[in-house]
Amino acid sequence: MKKVILSLALVAIATGAFAQKKVVSSAEKNFKKGDLEIALTEIDAALENPETKDNPETPLLKARILTKKFGLDSTNVMSTVETGRSALAQFTKAMEMSGNDKEGKIGKEVYKEEIPDLPENFKPYSMSTLKNETFNKAAVSYENEDMEMAYEFFNLMTEIDPTDTSSAFNTAFIANDLGKFEEAKKQFKKLIEVKEYNKLSSYYLLIQIISAEDKDPEEAYKYVTRARADYPEDKTLSEFEVQLLLQMNKMDEAMASVKAALASDPNNAGLLLRYGYLLEQSGDMDGALVEYKKSVVADPNFFEGNYYTGAIFLEQAKTILGKINDLSDDEWEKNAPTMTKQAEGLYAEAVPYFEKGLSLRPENVEIMEILYNVHVRLKNTAEVEKYNKMLVAKLGADWMEK
Asked: Domain with 71 in it: what CATH number?
């Protein structure tokens, strides 16, 4: 009697296991037919059942079902991303259950390459498929100027394939544009650790984020130092180095750095501007003016060079006018006319630099006001009226009172 009961129990167990395998088999058939919701319901049941949940082929099948569902979803919204991320989780689970053996049966299925333009029935619905579909969605979102979703899909690609440097850069670049600076830094920092990767652009953007957004010039300088070791001939990094040293008030180091950089790149407008600034800060206004003017010669359309050159002329003119006010009556009678003429000459020299600056930035109200006041000083009535009209158009009739 005991043998009969035992036999019946074994039959029941075998029948239960067979039933669960039938559920998995049905899920696979529905997957192939495209009845994905039914297939998901069936495979979820199999993942709950003790007879089938520990078989790595079960999460693998769910991953394939989700990958197919992900590819067919053209809405390209966050729920689409989550479907893709769920597929990735199931692929990962299948690999873990099979000892992460890429050469084993499961591993070969998970990482099976997808040949482009395969008919749907021949697609492997592997990690390769998932990555390709994710890239397509990222590209479509980007073309549609949906930067938020482009970021999400490119970010998902970095999770699917952490070695894909293009996806990492795209994720970081878009994150930076969206103001997701922590996410951008994470990807850029990952990229600069890749030995064979051309990481110069990643260095540029990472340094700018840390300097401008984090306002941490010391940390940014560490990355500049590292970047210059990797790319010693890069001129932009030399400019970054000088700029950061200035932010840290390390004038001596900045002066040494800018001189060294200019020795190999004497016509670099940005470096010439910074050299001029250092000279200005040290009190050498004449030397600063020379360097600012050089920066404009190097690049006539360099806004900062034109602005700083004009500003030096104005500062020199104001200094002379200040000295006139300090003259005694006798000295005033003797020297004031000559000194006034000298100051007016400096005002006149500033004009073309500010005019060029305004042509480069036509909406710059500050330069309009400077030119208005300079022409008032020079008694250029037509020019005064010209800039007054511009300022009225921008700021209103009472702009002088604001």
From this structure: 1.25.40.10
